[in-house]
Write a structure and sequence with these properties.
Keywords: Membrane, Transmembrane, Transmembrane helix
Strand content: under 5%
Radius of gyration: 25 Å
Structural class: mainly alpha
Subcellular location: Membrane
Order of helices and strands: HHHHHHHHHHHHH
GO cellular component, one term: membrane
Oligomer: single chain
GO molecular function, one term: sphingomyelin phosphodiesterase D activity
Helix content: 55-70%
Distance between the termini: 66 Å
Membrane topology: Single-pass membrane protein
Shape: elongated
Length: about 325
């Protein structure tokens, strides 16, 4: 299996997933691709000696024995995670189906010990190339009378670093530009996603509030100035219109948990709290601009929006 998976599965699957992440339509059908990816990332779920499942509140710790798999599949974790971040930033997270996908990814990567394994793999890859020849020279020097050519004293990190580099270079080439999952660029994307999540939570709550004030039988979209069919005859409704306030509760739950998981993975503390505080204003600003039916193109405030503005001035 260790020989077959990298040779016959890993490369083709990686290229396929990378293409899908960049070109698949931004709709709920992406869930099939997402689950394929997440299944590959978690072989411990299918191992014969797998542990008893943990509770939802206490997910089981990923055993250290899976560290070699994580390291030898580093790009499947890191580069595709960054690809997912870029994709998630372009989706409508008010939709419960999109919110669920963000939640699923965050939950998988937040499994105890997994982030540390990924970070260790990145450190091995970024280890200076000049270190390896020196260590190999020590490894293959002539033995003493009491030693052997396979003396175990050189550190194992050399072999692990070589395997990680071989994995990355075989998939991306020697001149690849690697963006660390725990580097500043990716962390900036995570903070942007956290900001988008917070805004989506505010928007979902606004829609829920509008629905509570609407007469029975009115849809969510009718209060935003749209009907289920636009002027071209195409359907414009989304999950919220189909599922009602139940959908808003699901969206809020998924996004709230996703925020917590992202905080755990990247060890955000004050940054995320400050971000959410700043987005309270952004969420309020979005709520002001809910328009009356038929007046969306003129950017007029709804009665609720006018009351909110009056209350904040």
């Amino acid at each position: 299996k260790r020989a077959a998976v990298p040779r016959f599965v890993q490369q083709k699957l990686y290229l396929f997933l990378q293409h899908c992440f960049g070109h698949w339509p931004l709709d709920a059908s992406f869930r099939a691709v997402l689950e394929m990816w997440l299944s590959y990332l978690q072989p411990w779920r299918y191992a014969p000696d797998k542990q008893a499942p943990g509770s939802d509140s206490q997910p089981r710790c990923v055993s250290e024995k899976w560290a070699p798999f994580v390291q030898e599949n580093l790009l499947m974790y890191t580069k595709l995670f960054v690809g997912f971040l870029n994709r998630a930033l372009r989706t409508d997270l008010v939709s419960p189906k999109h919110a669920l996908m963000v939640f699923r990814v965050a939950k998988v990567f937040a499994q105890p010990n997994l982030a540390e394994m990924i970070q260790k793999g990145e450190q091995l890859f970024l280890e200076p190339e000049l270190v390896i020849p020196h260590r190999q020279h020590r490894l293959f020097t002539a033995p003493t009378f009491t030693g052997s050519f396979l003396s175990p004293w050189p550190p194992a990190v050399t072999d692990a670093s070589f395997k990680v580099k071989s994995h990355v270079y075989s998939l991306e080439g020697q001149d690849c530009k690697y963006t660390p999952m725990f580097g500043p660029e990716a962390r900036t994307l995570v903070l942007r996603l956290a900001q988008l999540i917070t805004q989506a939570k505010h928007t979902a709550k606004s829609i829920s509030d509008q629905c509570a004030e609407s007469p029975a039988g009115h849809s969510f979209l009718s209060w935003l100035g749209f009907s289920s069919m636009d002027t071209n005859g195409s359907y414009t409704a989304n999950d919220l219109d189909e599922m009602g306030q139940d959908s808003v509760r699901k969206t809020d739950e998924y996004l709230e948990k996703a925020l917590e998981y992202l905080r755990q993975i990247f060890r955000f503390a004050g940054q995320m709290a400050a971000l959410c505080s700043r987005d309270d204003f952004l969420g309020s600003f979005c709520r002001y601009h809910l328009t009356e039916p038929g007046l969306a193109s003129r950017h007029l405030l709804s009665p609720v929006g006018r009351r909110q503005v009056a209350g904040h001035t």
